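Q&A log
Question type: sequence-to-structure
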Amino acid sequence: MQLLAQLLAHSLALSLFFGWQAISHIFLRYHDSAYKQIAAQDNLINSLSGVFKEDGQYLVPGSNLNASQEEMAKYDEGMKGKSFALITYHAADKSNMGMSAIRSHTTAFLSILILFPFSVIIPAVPLAFLLNVLV
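Response status: OK
Response body:
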């Protein structure tokens, strides 16, 4: 019976976690301040499209990934105080909010599923702690 109660508590945690994600993104627009806009966006996208040949995340300027530790340290020292950009580039917009919601719910579900055995083994772990780990 205690196992069933814990499973129900974890299901509630899943619902709360997924619900908070939805509310914070859709209604509260909590993450909007993280996204900045620039002038001449079309010009920038056209320039990036000419440079990037595949979808991915790019660090500009970036060091040689095969560099030795010494070369990396020298590069890092030379970059101190200089500008850089982290660019996530997609050649075409293929966004699908339904699929994003399903992925988010699945991630929350798997997180609860992974943490569930620990709460059975260590019953002293309160549900609030599990929620703090997930957020």
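Response note: Residues 99 and 105 are 10 Å apart (CA to CA).
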